[in-house]
């Protein structure tokens, strides 16, 4: 398998109110680390002996157990960086879907902020194909604990400490308020249009 290349998000530097260049650069470096580990895991999976896979310990088994950490660490960061940058506003179609699911756009925002405040980890606004509605999902440790099946991610917000400690220290509520005002709605609308769920 060819190596996966990290994407360049330097265009965000200086463009996200409330996130300094130092904060964003440190975060880009961490993302690059997940990409490196994902490539390392995939390379080793290409040659490792699969005949003795085992729950307690085995090299193949351990690589498979760690693969989602590096995979989600890579692609959740890409979703997050791609939906930052103060662009556009929620589209009429997505607004309608959010209102059908949460009662109002404001209720969705209140729930998203509560989700971000609830634990370290990710808050993902998703389209849930099991229940045909928009939901907020809290993904906690290791980038995959709490991840539901059969959902499409519309918006990803990172609430791990490394996402805000340089700029905010322990003032997480300030980060939460700022980051939810810094979304790139054009990107989020495009994801929703791409999955094109049935209208309610
Ligand atoms: Fe992060």
Automatic annotation (TrEMBL):
List of residues binding Mn(2+): 27, 77, 158, 162
UniProt key word Metal-binding: yes
EC number per UniProt: 1.15.1.1
InterPro entries: Fe/Mn_Superoxide_Dismutase (IPR050265), Mn/Fe_SOD (IPR001189), Mn/Fe_SOD_C (IPR019832), Mn/Fe_SOD_N_sf (IPR036324), SOD_C_sf (IPR036314)
Annotated Gene3D superfamilies: Fe,Mn superoxide dismutase (SOD) domain, Iron/manganese superoxide dismutase, C-terminal domain
Keywords, in A-Z order: Metal-binding, Oxidoreductase
Domain (Manganese/iron superoxide dismutase C-terminal): residue spans on this chain: 93-191
Database matches in Pfam families: Sod_Fe_C
Xref: PANTHER family: SUPEROXIDE DISMUTASE 2 (PTHR11404), SUPEROXIDE DISMUTASE [MN], MITOCHONDRIAL (PTHR11404:SF6)
Family classification: Belongs to the iron/manganese superoxide dismutase family.
Protein's name in the database: superoxide dismutase
Native species: Vulgatibacter incomptus
Lineage: Bacteria, Pseudomonadati, Myxococcota, Myxococcia, Myxococcales
